[in-house]
C-alpha cells in the first residue's frame, strides 16, 4: 500500500533536462543569468548601472521590432522585411519633417509602415503566397526604394518630438530613456493581447493548426492580415525609437535587423513552426543578444566573432525547439 507521503512525492515533477527543455521560458532565462554571471566575472564594469542602462538602450530598436517578428512567427510565418520597413520609416520621417513639421512626419511614417504591412498581409492572405517569398521580395523592393528616396544620403533630424524617445531620465541612480519605456509598453500591450484576448488565442490557433482553426470558425485570413498590419505599426514605433537613439536617418542603418529580430525570437523560445511562444521570451532573447554583444565587446572580441557566437546561439535554440517538439509529439 502506498503511503500518502509517497503518493505526494510521486506526483511532484522531476527536475530533469527533458522537463527544462519543455519549459519555453526557463531555458532562455537560465541562459541570460549564466551570461550575466560570466561577463560580470570577466569585467568589473559589466554590472555597473551605466552599462546596464547602455545594454537596454542598445536593445530598444531590435527589441521593438522583435515583437512584430514574434507575432509573424507565431502564425508560422517569417518577416524578412521588418527591418527595411523601419529604416524606410526613418527616412520618410526625416525628409517629411523638413518640409511639413514633426507631427506630419510622424503621421506619414506610421502611414507608410502600415501600408507596407498591409501589402505583405494582402499578398499572404489573398494570393496565398508563402510569407518567406513575400517578405523577401518586400525587403529587396523597400531597400531599393529607401536608397532612391534618400539619394544615398543621411539626414540629421533636429532635437524635439522626433528625438523624444531618446530623452533620458533618472530613477534613483539608474539612467534610462523614454525609448526603453516605449519598448516595455509595446511588450506589455502585446503580451496582454496574446494572453488575455480572443484575438491573441486566434493567432496561436492559426499558427498551430490553420485547418483546425478554420474548422472551429476562426477567420484565418483576417487574423493573418491583422498580424501583418500590426507588424507595420510596430515597425513605425521602432523607426521613431531609432531616431531617438541616433538622430540621423541613414538608409544603410540596421542592415542586420531582420536576422537579429529572428535571433531574439528564436532564442526566446518561440517556435519557428508557429503556435508556441511568447513575447516575454522574446524580451529575454533580446536581452541575451544585448548582453552577449556588450560582454564580448568589453572582452575585446571582434565584431565578426560576435556574429559567429550569435549564429551558434540561433542554431542551438532551433535544435532545442526541435527536440521539445519531438518529445511533445
Automatic annotation (TrEMBL):
Q: Where in the cell is it found?
A: Cell membrane
Question: What keywords would UniProt list here?
Answer: Cell membrane, Membrane, Transmembrane, Transmembrane helix
InterPro entries per record:
ABC_transp_permease
Query: Quick check: keyword Membrane in the entry?
Result: yes
* CDD domains in alphabetical order: TM_PBP1_transp_AraH_like
| Transmembrane segment boundaries | 24-42, 62-91, 103-123, 129-150, 171-194, 225-243, 264-292, 304-324
Organism superkingdom: Bacteria
What is its membrane topology?
Answer: Multi-pass membrane protein
Name of protein? ABC transporter permease
